[in-house]
Amino acid sequence: MQTTFLGKTLHTPLVLASGVLGSNKAILERVWENGCGLPTMKSIGPAPREGHKNPTVIDLGNGMINAVGLPSPGYLNMEEEWQELSDRAFPINASIYGGSVDEFVRVAEFVSAKGPDFIELNISCPNSDQHGMIFGVNAQSSHDVVAAVKKVIHVPLIAKLTPAAPDIAGIAKACEDAGADAICAINTAGPGMVIDIESRSPVLAFKKGGLSGPMIKPIAVRCVYDIFRSVSIPIIGLGGISTGTDAIEIIMAGASLVGIGTAVRYRGITVFDKVNKEINDWLAAHGTTLEEIRGAAHREAL
Amino acid sequence: MQTTFLGKTLHTPLVLASGVLGSNKAILERVWENGCGLPTMKSIGPAPREGHKNPTVIDLGNGMINAVGLPSPGYLNMEEEWQELSDRAFPINASIYGGSVDEFVRVAEFVSAKGPDFIELNISCPNSDQHGMIFGVNAQSSHDVVAAVKKVIHVPLIAKLTPAAPDIAGIAKACEDAGADAICAINTAGPGMVIDIESRSPVLAFKKGGLSGPMIKPIAVRCVYDIFRSVSIPIIGLGGISTGTDAIEIIMAGASLVGIGTAVRYRGITVFDKVNKEINDWLAAHGTTLEEIRGAAHREAL
Amino acid sequence: MITQLMPAMVKVAERKIHSPEFATLYIDEPIDFKPGQFVMVWIPGVDEKPYTISHHSPDRFGITVEAKGIFSRKAVSLGPGDKIGIRGPFGNGFNMGNGHKRVAVVAGGCGMAPLAPLVEAFQTDNGPETLLIQGARSKSFLLYPDRFTAKAEICTDDGSKGYKGFVTDILVQKIKALPANLAPGFDMVYTCGPEIMMAKVFEICEAHGIPCQVSLERYMRCGFGVCGACVCGHAVVCKDGPVFGSKALRTMADFNTRALLKTGRSVPLNEYAAWRCQ
Amino acid sequence: MITQLMPAMVKVAERKIHSPEFATLYIDEPIDFKPGQFVMVWIPGVDEKPYTISHHSPDRFGITVEAKGIFSRKAVSLGPGDKIGIRGPFGNGFNMGNGHKRVAVVAGGCGMAPLAPLVEAFQTDNGPETLLIQGARSKSFLLYPDRFTAKAEICTDDGSKGYKGFVTDILVQKIKALPANLAPGFDMVYTCGPEIMMAKVFEICEAHGIPCQVSLERYMRCGFGVCGACVCGHAVVCKDGPVFGSKALRTMADFNTRALLKTGRSVPLNEYAAWRCQ
Ligand SMILES: Cc1cc2nc3c(=O)[nH]c(=O)nc-3n(C[C@H](O)[C@H](O)[C@H](O)COP(=O)(O)OP(=O)(O)OC[C@H]3O[C@@H](n4cnc5c(N)ncnc54)[C@H](O)[C@@H]3O)c2cc1C
Ligand SMILES: Cc1cc2nc3c(=O)[nH]c(=O)nc-3n(C[C@H](O)[C@H](O)[C@H](O)COP(=O)(O)OP(=O)(O)OC[C@H]3O[C@@H](n4cnc5c(N)ncnc54)[C@H](O)[C@@H]3O)c2cc1C
Ligand SMILES: Cc1cc2nc3c(=O)[nH]c(=O)nc-3n(C[C@H](O)[C@H](O)[C@H](O)COP(=O)(O)O)c2cc1C
Ligand SMILES: Cc1cc2nc3c(=O)[nH]c(=O)nc-3n(C[C@H](O)[C@H](O)[C@H](O)COP(=O)(O)O)c2cc1C
Ligand code: FES
Ligand code: FES
Q1: Which tens digits make up the pLDDT trace of A232-264?
Q2: B298 touches chain A (CB under 8 A)
Q3: Using a 6 Å cutoff on CB, does residue D277 contact ligand 2?
Q4: Mean pLDDT of A200-218
Q5: C203 and C122, same domain (yes or no)
Q6: D102 assigned to some structural domain
Q7: Residue A29 gets which letter from DSSP?
Q8: Is the pLDDT of residue C93 over 60?
Q9: Which helix (H) or strand (E) holds A10?
Q10: What subunits make at least 3 CB pairs under 8 angstroms with C?
């Protein structure tokens, strides 16, 4: 199921969500070999950062809550990884974050020179006080950061949005206007909190965390649906996608590519091959194509 | 487990969520007899309103999605119900909504004269384009509507908030400053959307709907936790509470009373008696009281 | 698979037209079932409404629709291959008792739909003696004329078939005709039809000390006891019902008097019945 | 109930102090278990870290902790009645094979913890002949001296007990001592200890055509294969491992060379081992 995305050919329409597994070249490659068309690297930040103490990731059964806290070696400390990645046979999406427009620009410019296929701006992470989400809930600051980064990079720019924005479609439009080449939606939802009543304390060390997996799928589908109506750039739809029919659902909402994160927990790394097969089987049984069903949920309404 | 709430004695700390079952006196009474300390009426609006076409409420297994659309006879068309309620033996919480501060004031003043025990302002419903949520996502408009209503009513005022607010603690503070006597959190989350891929159409007639039930519990707990730190008025905590341990969890986050809506689907109308028993059993087994555990999740951190 | 969760899109396998007003749509899918239960039927872009399961076998079931308003007219126009969404089954269904010797089944108009599978279930070797009294406005409104082995007492308002008059007249007559030593004459009376008719049946049963079960209708949204749209007094019709026995009926405010419109406004029954969905 | 979901708060039932450095905490709860699996241990307000299940019976299990940094020092200070959170078990555990005749188990220091239940499982009537080679810095670091029925080969770095030198010396010696007609001499070699030791064991096994299994450690967060903190080359240690066989080791970049710090930065193994959590 080859797909073209912003001029690049991907062997499948599936994307590995940032922050899930993608910590080194070998694992990015393994995910790609297992049917992921576009592996995304863990978000790269402006400085070394350990992230939060554990517990950082808890499986709630129907999804997960996490506050990993944007650990990153810092963009200046990844020479070896870029070296290894330089002769890769597969495409990569480099996710980056910063605490200010300046930091975003500095990281983006540096990373762009390392030759990723795409750069994804994580303006939507709820798990750090200073980084990320503050941009993604405000149209003006989203516009500013995208416009500034766009000027210094030489690869297509993807803006990754948060469902915490009161008007995600408006944020997406602001990003498009600022030059974003695609939208990725959604980052984790909530945030949420789980309290262990025996110890009377929040389970996550950071107390609050982002929700992911099956329980946020309806939010992801709604966000993609809203964004599809407001922009004309392609959308990477993710949030709770675990099966081929989930993927079809978010594609009907308007997604061009489909991201998978938490489902790795429930179906293993081979989830990509499985979902590809399920998508293909469904399309074949219904005598249709991805192009034909993209945004189909809007037709009757439009 | 008698509880005092804003000067009234309730026979249990459980509240029936607005919009769930409470359509007439007989059912409010039945819920009360089954262990609900404070039944809330379905939200009353400024004019007759049918709500949306079906499907309006879908069970997703781990919670529900709904866009009922604020049906209401309109506050002027409920004479008979008020008549019946006038000799009730139980307390009621009258939920109201409006499309403007004026409408809120008009409905509130009228309803207040009918003698409910509390008035709850639904400034948080996602299922109508013109009503409700627009207030609840903005601190200034929340303040305005609460302050205006407070002037014309003679019973305690509860502000019901939405988790869609980027800063629910700030909204709660604005409501407290404007004179709210208590906060109720949360209304449904999201909104979300589910698409039926065979018919390629959103399942809800309104397309989008609010999420409730177990899958939103972490969001509700986080909201109550945040609000508890920002206000000193009591909080009715609800959102996905189905069991005694769920209730304990949200009480530890800071709730004084605990609301139940969707769990009626999963455990029947007797869910109130069941949850009361489970709370009591837990308190007894741990040799503690509701007062002692309220907000306990904040202690270590404070 | 059809469940109480998301509607499952299924194909109409067959449509049987009974008369200009009535058609049965058959679906070739298995569904859990007890006589008296209903499903929510979704026509995307139109609406979703409750319909009794009127026909049931292990791999096929049917609903019988009376063309009335926008939705039901659309429903009876569907044919083989058309897709509809189904969720359910919902509701309690009839209590068929244990060892009933003699029962009466009193159907008015479309009320035959939930009662038909009940009659079929009773028409087995060990089933009770079943008296079926079926009434309708006129002949063409009589559902399933050839469906049952037992002979039915037929009445029509206009006399176009059978007795000219009410099913309740026949019921009283049949109760009185039973030998006096059989007390109560019927172990149970099951009824579905216009609420005023069911109220009359209930009244007759009360007068003769016979327990009865009626199947109610109210405006429904969720179908599973949460939204409160369908309440009738203290009863949640979709969940506690739609079938209610004599004990519940005795204390049920609003039975045969009032119902909630889509707005939630409580109105007299005739106003509710005259109301139409736009 | 202890599951892979939310941590279950359980009471420490007993603490056994082995030496100033080591203690075993026992929990009186049932837990699923295969030798080699681990649990995530949460001390509220402190941190959560992975620990091998070192003792297991139907209603009790234990973890053996080496006091090292902030968390492990806190852990060994816990006593009966103290509560900790447990989720798990995680990981694949050792493949115990089918019909093994002769196996070697090579433990270095705290590496004895995952291997001990394996040795116990092998010490049954039908189990393989088990050669246990146990090494440590010095005598007090030798775990469970009286736990096994089989005789163990002991080595210490300082010669304070047993052979002065490396477990790998003994392993080579034992392989060579086996009659030449037994090929391969061992059906499987199981090992856990410092990674450099395990790498040496692997190398020896490869040279002699003996399959081997090693148990790795990397910084962990989720414990179930999502966060990517623990990757070692293409392997996800918490999920694909922590036990890896010869086949995986042959192509595993980073085995015995590099590991990711908490920041995700890849560093040489000695730098990783010297790193401490604040
Ligand atoms: C438990 C139950 C079982 C039913 N079984 C059958 C059946 O087997 N066959 C059949 O023809 N009809 C049945 N109905 C009625 C059916 O749901 C529709 O109300 C009817 O088909 C009219 O719909 P309409 O859109 O064509 O007419 P409308 O113009 O919408 O309404 C006509 C009347 O139908 C009722 N009604 C409308 N919408 C609803 C709704 N969502 N829920 C409940 N009542 C509604 C109101 O009383 C209204 O006055 C049942 C209703 C209930 C509650
Ligand atoms: C699968 C597995 C099983 C383990 N089993 C045992 C055991 O049975 N007994 C035992 O004493 N220790 C075991 N450990 C190591 C244990 O998790 C701790 O790392 C160790 O106790 C030191 O923690 P600390 O906080 O005291 O020291 P720190 O100062 O935090 O760290 C010391 C070293 O421990 C490692 N480490 C720290 N945090 C983690 C973490 N979250 N995950 C993995 N490694 C970490 C790093 O290599 C670090 O250099 C195991 C680790 C893994 C991965
Ligand atoms: C453990 C974990 C870590 C994550 N880290 C990042 C991150 O560093 N950057 C980012 O943009 N998104 C991060 N996310 C969000 C995911 O990329 C994804 O947007 C979200 O989980 C929803 O998709 P899912 O339901 O398929 O997991 C993380 C998610 C999880 C579960
Ligand atoms: C079917 C349905 C209808 C609702 N209608 C209203 C309403 O009219 N007014 C209101 O304030 N909240 C309404 N709510 C929200 C609930 O009161 C409650 O805040 C929310 O469902 C979260 O609680 P729960 O998870 O226990 O259901 C409705 C919820 C549901 C499921
Ligand atoms: S239809 Fe919702 S409660 Fe009956
Ligand atoms: S600890 Fe998260 S993937 Fe291994």
Answers
A1: 999 999 999 999 999 999 999 999 999 999 999
A2: no
A3: yes
A4: 97
A5: yes
A6: yes
A7: H
A8: yes
A9: strand A8-10
A10: B
Domain limit, last residue, from C214, C233, C266: C214
CB contact, 8 Å: A197 with chain B? yes
Interface of B with A in 153-192 (CB under 8 A): 164-166, 189-192
Which chains have 3+ CB pairs within 8 A of A?
Answer: B, D
Smallest Cβ–Cβ distance between D264 and the set A60, A71, A268 belongs to A71
Domains of chain A: 3-298 (3.20.20.70)
- Residues A156 and C93: their CA atoms lie apart, in Å, by 60
Mutation probe of ligand 1 site: the residue of C72, C118, C230, C258 with most atoms within 8 A of C-beta: C72
**B200 φ, ψ (degrees, to nearest 5):** 55, 35
What does the pLDDT read at residue B131?
A: 57
D2 belongs to a structural domain? no
Residue of B69, B67, B66, B125 whose CA lies nearest to B95: B125
| H/E segment holding residue B93 | strand B93-96
> Is D1 inside a domain boundary?
no
D44 closest CA partner among C104, A207, C113: A207
Domain match, D32 and D117 both: no
Give me the CATH number covering residue C75: 2.40.30.10
Which residue has the CA at smallest separation from atom 5 of ligand 4? Answer: B19
pLDDT digits (tens, 9 = 90+) for D136-172: 999 989 999 889 887 789 999 999 999 999 999 999 9
Listed residues D22, D55, D90: the one ending a domain: D90
Instruction: Give me the active site residues of A, please.
Output: 125
Per-residue pLDDT tens digits for C158-210: 999 999 999 999 999 999 888 777 666 899 999 999 999 999 999 999 999 99
Q: Do C164 and C261 fall within a single domain?
A: no
Residues of A with CB below 8 A from B299's CB? Answer: 200
Ligand 4 atom 12 nearest Cα: B18
User: Are residues C24 and C66 located together in one domain of the fold?
Assistant: yes
Residue B301 has what pLDDT? 42
Residue C116: CATH number of its domain: 3.40.50.80
Residues of chain D with a CB closer than 8 angstroms to some CB in chain A: 4-7, 9, 40, 42, 44-45, 47-49, 83, 85, 87, 221-222, 224-229, 231, 233-234, 236, 253-254, 260-266, 277
**Pick from C47, C254, C265: which is nearest to B77 by CB?**
C265
Residue C113: which domain range?
Answer: 94-214
Residue D160 shares a structural domain with residue D226: no
Q: Tell me which residue in A221, A300, A301 faces B194 most closely, judged by beta carbons.
A: A221
Q: How many domains does chain C have?
A: 3
Q: Is D3 a domain residue?
A: no
pLDDT tens digits, residue range A257-286? Answer: 999 999 999 999 999 999 999 999 999 999
8 Å CB contact of D4 and A59? yes
Same domain, C276 and C223: yes
Out of B36, B125, B175, B184, the active site residue is: B125
Residues C33 and C103 in one domain: no
Tens digits of per-residue pLDDT, D25-77? 999 999 999 999 999 999 999 999 999 999 999 999 999 999 999 999 999 99
Whole-number pLDDT of residue A302? 37
Chain C residues near residue B204 by CB distance under 8 angstroms: none
Same domain, D110 and D85: no
